[in-house]
Amino acid sequence: MEQFEIAVIPGDGIGKEVVPAAIRVLEAVADIHGGLGFRWTSFPWSCDYYLKHGVMMPEDGIETLKGFHQIFLGAVGMPRLVPDHVSLWGLLIKIRRELHQSINVRPAKLLRGLTSPLRDPGEFDLVVVRENSEGEYSEIGGRMHRGADEMAMQTAVFTRKATERAMHYAFELASRRRKHVTSATKSNGISHSMPFWDDVFQDVAQAHPEIATSKHHIDALAAFFVMKPQMFDVIVASNLFGDILTDLGGAIMGSIGIAPAANLNVERSYPSMFEPVHGSAPDIAGQGIANPLGQIWTGKMMLDFLGFEEMGTLVLKAMEATLASGVKTPDLGGKATTTEVTDEVIAYLRRRA
Ligand code: NAI
Ligand code: MG
């Protein structure tokens, strides 16, 4: 029996609704498999916690997390009470950086039973590999003066080490898929960091001659996501470009509520963190209608990362069967609740077991 210690951070808003739902699914998976077990330890770190304690997580929070195999996170954010940069930098970005979760992997796939808002989506099945540790989301910069003279500067940071790491991961992933990597660049407008990005891409591509490559400027690439998403296999992107592209990836699937993400520590020196792409959705929180499929798919990615790909594949099948049966939350045009969708996913798993 392989037993995994998982740190759970439900966070705010619908995070507190979809995380318990996905845990029920993963418990069902463990039960069906027999040789796999989870121990869940929940932490209340969130904007609520911030309002009580003045910090998003305690001083020793990162040290505490290091004792776990993986982290399962919902979403943080309470924009009316806590500024988003405080909640994001105080928890999510802190965990990603300090635990060296240097790569963010986000698939987008046309699931059976889902209607894409695109008229002609084709059978798209792509993965965005986003550099997760530097780039445009840097701490270098500042603000000066007030009033009419006020100014702000923020410096993007691109290192060879982090850029290569993201690109190598993308090529290795592509070698297990359809063997194509697209680079998201903008070397026409951004004249230092993006030509550097292109050079590193060319170097890494040479080390993987069996993989075909292409590169597009991010603006054109965003348009292709809408016009011909079927043309992509793996896409490698900087922190900002990857962030924007993956919300679009969620949107063309049919709802941001189903898009999953994994923040990977590829060296496996510290835990990785699995979280959906969506946020805390304050507009629907507390109503019991949040779509749990993004969080469940995130759980599938955790199963894959732990080496239980067969069970991961089964979870994705259960999600598709649930969608095809018409049990859908309102974001997908249905009437089902979070619990009803979760029950249906679990019922499928049990039938197939
Ligand atoms: P959001 O993703 O929370 O919501 C955008 C829209 O999508 C809303 O209309 C919402 O109802 C809908 N939506 C999102 N997830 C859904 C689900 N599972 N089921 C059904 N509908 C869903 O993004 P927004 O509104 O920009 O941000 C809200 C808060 O969440 C902010 O504080 C933001 O900073 C935070 N946030 C946190 C993230 C994280 O923890 N990883 C990621 C994105 C935003
Ligand atoms: Mg985002």
Automatic annotation (TrEMBL):
It holds the Pfam family Iso_dh. Its cofactor is Mg(2+); Mn(2+). SMART domains: Iso_dh (SM01329). It comes from the Bacteria. InterPro entries: ICDH/IPMDH (IPR050501), IsoCit/isopropylmalate_DH_CS (IPR019818), IsoPropMal-DH-like_dom (IPR024084), TTC_DH (IPR011829). It catalyses: (R)-malate + NAD(+) = pyruvate + CO2 + NADH. Keywords: Manganese, Metal-binding, NAD, Oxidoreductase. GO terms for molecular function: D-malate dehydrogenase (decarboxylating) (NAD+) activity; magnesium ion binding; NAD binding. Its EC number is 1.1.1.83. Belongs to the isocitrate and isopropylmalate dehydrogenases family. This is D-malate dehydrogenase (decarboxylating).
